[in-house]
Amino acid sequence: MKRPAKRSAVRFLSTFCIALLICAPGCTKDKTASAASDPPAPSPAATPGKAVLPAGPELHIDPARAWQYVKDIVAIGPRWDGSKGQERVGEYIHAKLKGDLVEEDAFVADTPAGKIAMRNIVAKFPGAKDGIIVLGSHIDTNYPLRNTKFVGANDGASTTALLLAIADQLRGKKLEGYSIWMAFLDGEESIPSATPGDLRWVSDQALYGSRHLAAKWQQDGTAAKIKAFILADMIGDKDLDIQRDSGSAAWLEDLILQAAQKLGYQSYFFAQTLNGLEDDHVSFAHAGVPVADVIDINYGYNNSYHHTTEDTLDKISPKSIQIAGDVILETIRLLNGGGGPH
Ligand code: ZN
Q: For residue 181, what are the β-bridge partners?
């Protein structure tokens, strides 16, 4: 994600893992924003009169369990692609999903640092309704920081834990709505070169796992069955402020906001809008899937915790994970209730 110095309402992001620009409502782009995408059509709230009624039982994640998962994953240590930690986090996810329907999408990524074995893990919870909702998180930690103690408590661990905590709520239940799949995605972080500390974001040298899985799903017809792909990234931040993303489907973000309003969490959502955000959701958008990225890219003062060894457990909270998890679960109920493009 990329990160800027704060300049009045506009921030320009320069050196991190997701290329983007943050723009508060009503701000104008300055010339440094020219590489970012055009500003989105304003879509500040769920469209009046088009509110959807949720279907199925209300579900909530267990924040204590989610927190335990975060701690376990952080305790594994760095989990960059090719590391022992990467193998171990895969084993951990499999262990927590034991007995569930789980598939692997293993492949070898051709990166500027050489060929690296990667694997996406997909857990499937079948529903009665025709169609699939996919929830995603990346599981890797930043490769260029492999010579440091970077453990990605927020950037990698928090959302991997979140998906496991959501799986706990679906397991053993008869799902009357769409099937829910969890995509644990490898290789999100950019690998621009073999040089440690090279934190440049290079679009075609990142998102390896999601690009591989999206291409596979496009080829085998799965992509056409996906009603929504909801990505979670960096939502563990104690100071939670999830941004709207102009590259996400506006109707899907409106449903997310409606879900947040229902739960009283709307103050954590969409005070700012991101333009030009590159994250795993983009791979699925290219495959024709409606996508949304639930992301908080404001991590620490001036983003000082992002892609630094400051990204540790003390900077994140179970409450933030709970807010994101419960809003995603409520969004699923809205999708099951017929929520879709306006
Ligand atoms: Zn990152």
A: 124, 134
CA of 16 to the centre of ligand 1 (A): 7
What residues have CB less than 8 Å from 49, skipping those under 6 apart?
A: none
What is the 83 CA–ligand 1 centroid distance (Å)? 16
In a domain, 150, yes or no: yes
Residues 152-201 have pLDDT tens digits of 999 999 999 999 999 999 999 999 999 999 999 999 999 999 999 999 99
Q: Domain containing 195 — which CATH number?
A: 3.40.630.10
Encode pLDDT of 3-25 as tens digits: 332 222 333 343 344 544 444 43
CA of 55 to the centre of ligand 1 (A): 34
102-147: per-residue pLDDT in tens?
Answer: 999 999 999 999 999 999 999 999 999 999 999 999 999 999 999 9
Q: What is the DSSP letter of 258?
A: H
CA of 17 to the centre of ligand 1 (A): 5
Euclidean distance between CA atoms 276 and 1, whole angstroms: 11
305 within domain boundaries: yes
What secondary structure letter does DSSP report for 191? -
